[in-house]
Amino acid sequence: MKVGVLALQGDVAEHASALADSGAHVVEVRLPGHLAGLDGIVLPGGESTTISKLLELAGLFEPLAERLAEGMPAFGTCAGMILLATEIVDGHPGQRSFGAIDIGVRRNAFGRQRQSFEASLEVDGVGPGGPFDAVFIRAPAVERVGPAVAVLADVDGRPVLCRQGPVLVAAFHPELSEDTRLHRLFLDTCEGM
Ligand code: GLN
Questions:
Q1: Ranges of each domain in the chain
Q2: Ligand 1 centroid vs 81 CA: distance in angstroms?
Q3: What does the angle CA 190 – CA 12 – CA 118 come to, to the nearest 5 degrees?
Q4: N or C, fewer C-beta in 10 Å, the chain?
Q5: If you measure from the C-alpha of residue 51 to the centroid of ligand 1, how many angstroms do you get, rounded to a whole number?
Q6: What topology does CATH give the domain 2-192?
Q7: What tens digit of pLDDT does each residue of 17-71 get?
């Protein structure tokens, strides 16, 4: 599997090593040409307003939007989830998103950096190994879930891991856990396409 990691800002290296450990050939995506031949792409956590701006500057927004519209598998974590959503609440003026998964998300819903937290998640379909230890950092909240979206995990009834077809999004940072089960789940999606 040839899988891209959007490498404009954020936790690129952590995603790249989780994917490589799971057997993928990883490409850091900084320019439109880097999208060629990818079986899927990861949009990392970081700052969605900054990544949105850098996508425009790099001329990457439109070509990536096209690939996503064609059904390229994508895994967005935290800021990456915001970038893939149809609706952003509390975004910056002009902040764009790809609308690849029918959810409404509120940025920074859990407060400031020091209100970061960890939670032990029961994840649907991730296989054996017990709960997934998830790290939430200035996490977005999913406030609306469209009918085509499956919620794979929640915290106190709030969705934190969702899927719509080939698009998987997490409000947390799976790349910061030792556990690569979610990266492997994503690679299975890429393989099945
Ligand atoms: N608060 C960030 C944003 O709006 C997301 C935080 C993160 O990715 N850890 O993009």
A1: 2-192
A2: 9
A3: 90
A4: C
A5: 10
A6: Rossmann fold (3.40.50)
A7: 999 999 999 999 999 999 999 999 999 999 999 999 999 999 999 999 999 999 9
